Give the backbone structure.
Amino acid sequence: MFLLKDKYHKIVCCFMILVILASSLLNLSAAPAADIPSTMLDNIYLDALTYTGYKTDAQKADGSIFKTYSGNAPASVRSGIGYGTGPSGLETVAAGNKTGKAPDIAKFKANGLCCASYVSYVYYNYLPNIARMDVSKIPQPANPRSPISYNSAVENWVKSGGARRIAFTQGTNSFTPSEEIPIGSLIIFKHKTTGEIAHLALYAGYYAGKHFVTHVGNERGPEISTVEGMSKGSYPEVVTQVVVPVVGEPVGTISVYKTDENGKPLAGAKFKATMAEHPEYSFLIDPTDENGNGKMNMGLPYGKYILTEIEFPEGYTYSGQKEYTVEICDETQFVTVRAVNRLKSSKLTVIKVDSETGQTVKGVTGFKIKNLKTNTESETYYTDENGFLTLPDEITYGDYELTEITPPKGYTLNSVPIAFSIDGNTPEVVIRLSDKPEKGKISVLKRGEMFSSVTETDGIYTPVYSERGLKGAEFEVTAAEDIYTADGTLRISKGALADTLVTDESGKAVSKELYPGKYLLREISAPEGYILNAEPREITVVSGITSAEIFNKRKKQEYTIQKNLETDQKFGIGFNGEILNIRFGLFSKTELTALDGSVIPADGLIEIASPDEDGALRFTADMPYNAECYIKELETDEHYILSDEQYLSGDTAENKIIRGSIEGLKTDPNGRVLKGAVIGLFYPFETEFSLDTAIETFETDEAGRFSFKDVPYGEWIIRELKAPDGYILSEENYTVTVKENGETVKLNIKNSKIPEPPSAPESPKTGDTANLLIPSAVLFTALAVIIFLSKKFKKEGNINE
């Protein structure tokens, strides 16, 4: 069987030949020559000749087969078909075989066959309809009755791989091929003299030094002849081509119809058919198309086969049955197997975990699953209280997204879809759906009064404050309790430092993210100029921002001064509320600039205040903490010297009494100084003038001088308490005033001498008495005038005259 393409076909062919040989041996009447090759005695091409009515069995029986005759084959073995050009050899009649057709031998006998139509009968009628051979690789020539048409068709056979040529040499009476010619090969002859294509024959084998063919040569019809015999006679022919066509064994096919469990056709499934008796031989079936159909591109020899799916459509696998056993024979030559696949699937388990620790989170989580191919979304599934869920139904093959719908308590929603695939290669797919623990932040707003502007009224500057955010406040955040998350992890222990915050220009500070729970916010460093607010504040952190506002009091300066006044018990100075008449001013030592750019100038007056009865003075002005100020006395009591010193807060300021001196001169009206007069210094309100009521007394010296030292500021009365001997006591009050410190007030007090009593007159002479009386009267009158004028001057205060 020259057309067998693989080892199995050759095995089958040999097996069939052995069966035929065995059958022939059983026929004791058949006696072909023992040296005739068995393949020449049993092949489909010899069977085709026999089918025409040619008596090959008779020739085998009498040993005349493949014997050369001196003449033509006897009529007893011929088919009864003569020569004729009418039939094409393709004519058929209805038959009960697989194809339902058989060669119309009766028509051939009635009309005859030619060499070309005989080849057409064998190749395109007997082989496919009776022998069940595959001749698809050698398409029919345009004219099945024409050797020339066959000669042209061969070119296409060879080009398409449906045939091959065998080289040869030939002489006048010889023909030598380059290799053994397979039985059934097409031999094309041409006229030796003209070179025209003339004849066709089918090679029948080589025996006894001769190359045999079957053909229709003349009116005798189909018969056995030799190549060498064709070159003899009146019209000799020579071989021009030896062509070996590819003709297949009797075959069948296996087709597959692939669907899913719902009957939907599936494309892309691949199967192989393995010979049951020879598992080393397997044949591939084309992948199923979009209609689920998979076909073979070749025929399969008859026999039993095991059909196995070797490549599944994407996402599919076996649905129960894995192998299918089929048989190719005349009754089931074309087999179609329906193979069902199911989508691969896996269990899906979702575990809720903490994104930071990886620990399982207790609490119910809701999620949905979206099929990315169909764009459909599932119902909402929920984990149990322990954070686990295995879906009740397996998830079929495909690409999906899992999206969280509701997070467990204490965790933020993870809305980012988690992509996953089900490939069916693992029985269970586990998705660890992670969430971040809810966290919050503490926002601190630090506020306090800031020196924002300045007002000025009547030369007095007043700082103005307004609440603003304070930069530079430092806080510690510590856990007020052990803080756990829902996965059971202790995140921070009680008392542990969670964060440190420092406020910015706006007075704000925001902590890092903190786990929900109770914390203590404590100020550990206040902004410069402010009082530390160390009282801890408990804050409960939840998701989001928890705000706290902390107010700091400004550091304030106290400006105080102690005022001490010199007192004088003798003169009664410093005991009459004099201290209440004192005024101090608070001044800025340097220029102070407020936030709005307004200023308190250097030496600007801030406040005027008076000490209390004890001399204590506390200014009420609210100055910036860093202001440098000084205190200066603006007014004092009239009895005291005004201080021009600049005092600092806390200093003691002392005022000295304004003191002066009173110096006087005691004379008589003639300017003669008088010694021994006692002069008294009295309060201005004094009405009783005596040594007991006098503040001080002074007795005039030899020069008639008297003086009072360190006499305090004010009006005082000078009065004579004792006149010099021989002088009249002056009862005049002299008012003196001490106005300036160190001042000397001068005074001149005059005394008149006491008049002397008249001496005893001499015995008057006659007429002398009158002369004595007149001078006495004049003297007393003058004395009276002096006393009157003295009192008048005293009343008018002309003490300095």
